[in-house]
Amino acid sequence: MSPMNISELSPAQLRKAAKMKERIVRLQSELDRLFGSKAGPEAAPKKRTRRMSAAGRARIVAAQKARWAKIKAGKK
User: CA distances (Å), 22 to each of 4, 19, 27, 68, in order?
Assistant: First the structure.
């Protein structure tokens, strides 16, 4: 079965699709209540942003500069 454009659907097909969607939403809510959790994108945990202190960043920069200096010194 090939995907159909929504504008090609008849009013009866649209009503049937809307009823099916409502039933899916109701069943999903029922599952959420049963298992005590939300499923779906709204239940996804928020991503934590990692924060680095200025001192930590400075240590990384210094170590990288030392590595590059060691490499450059070996080429001469």
Answer: 20, 5, 9, 62
Range of the domain at 65: 10-75
The span from the CA of 24 to the CA of 2, in Å, is 22
Residue 9, pLDDT score: 87
Helices (H), the chain: 11-35, 54-75
| CA separation for the pair 39, 31 (Å, rounded) | 9
* Tens digit of each residue's pLDDT (9 = 90 or more) over 35-57: 886 555 566 677 888 899 999 99
Residue 47 placed within a domain: yes
* Interacting residues of 40 by C-beta distance below 8 A, sequence separation 6+: 28
- Asked if residues 55 and 63 have their Cβ atoms less than 8 Å apart, the reply is no
